[in-house]
Amino acid sequence: PVPDYIQSINDMIDKKVKLKMGVPHEFFDVDGLDQRVKSKVLYAIERLSSEFGFEIVEISLPMVKYALPIYYIIAPAEASSNLARYDGVKYGTRVEGEDIFDMYYKTRNAGFGDEVKRRIFIGTFVLSSGYYDAYYLKAQKAITVVIREFQSAFEKVDVIVCPVSPELPFKLGEKTDDPIKMYLSDIFTIPSSIAGLPAISCPVGFVNEDNKKLPVGLQVIGKPFDESTILFLAKCVEMLHLD
């Protein structure tokens, strides 16, 4: 059964539970981090400490810098394997062609967008003979290193807090032609994903950009299966009424 998270949050509030928040310097010293985002997130962390008595603990996660390349090897490989069935023969839409190979080409061209095709190509490459050991197998082994690093960090803290994205929200379609730059927007959220950790994004205010208010988020990462704690901290962020 799913735990009663609302009751759990209320109990933790009533007991005035004090948390240790881990702040990894690798997430705040990274190239490309917008200083306005950094300022908003650090302010939220300081407010959580002053208002609720949470302890701020500086930690180090040096191996998380490899999370992004790990993910963009593993995820495309899984996509390539999973989406191979959608060739119009038994699964998915079908576009007729002059022969079966032409039908395959037209069907997959019509059914998949540019990003999906890109991931299929990358995934097929890293799974191909001669490259499986060099890329996919190494990435799988590297995941274990990242997981162990998080486990070590959680021996010292209850949660890890960091930005959600290194930059302000960009316009829809703005980075479609620059996939690498688009992938870098995931640099802070991918580590928890590949490590199998629960995480939540909490709004912590806005930044004015071109006469528009753009949101900034604080990410809270918890221990495995410890959703109650990250939801409790998210509720505390909500209670700060940051703008």
Observed structural traits:
single chain, 243 residues, alpha/beta, Amidase signature (AS) enzymes, five-stranded mixed sheet, 10 helices, 15% strand, elongated
Compact overview of the structure:
The chain is built from 10 helices and 5 strands, in the order αβααβααααβααββα. By secondary structure, it is an alpha/beta fold. It has a single domain, classed as Amidase signature (AS) enzymes (Alpha-Beta Complex), CATH 3.90.1300.10.
Q: Could you name the ranges where pLDDT drops below 50 across 5 or more consecutive residues? A: none
SSE series? HEHHEHHHHEHHEEH
The major pleated sheet works out as: 5 strands, mixed
| CATH architecture group name | Alpha-Beta Complex
Tell me the distance between the termini.
Answer: 36 Å
Secondary structure topology:
Layout lengths: L4 H10 L5 E5 H4 L6 H18 L2 E5 L7 H17 L16 H12 L2 H14 L4 H22 L5 E5 L15 H6 L5 H5 L4 E11 L2 E11 L4 H14 L3
Parallel strand pairs: 1-2, 1-3
Antiparallel strand pairs: 3-5, 4-5
Helix pairs in contact: 1-10, 4-6, 4-7
Describe this structure in words.
With 243 residues, the chain is an alpha/beta fold. It has one domain (5-240): Amidase signature (AS) domain (Amidase signature (AS) enzymes), CATH 3.90.1300.10. 50% of the residues lie in helices and 15% in strands. The protein has helices spanning 5-14, 25-28, 35-52, 67-83, 100-111, 114-127, 132-153, 179-184, 190-194, 227-240; strands spanning 20-24, 55-59, 159-163, 199-209, 212-222. A 5-stranded mixed sheet has the order 2-1-3-5-4. The longest helix has 22 residues, at 132-153. The model has no long low-confidence stretch (mean pLDDT 91).
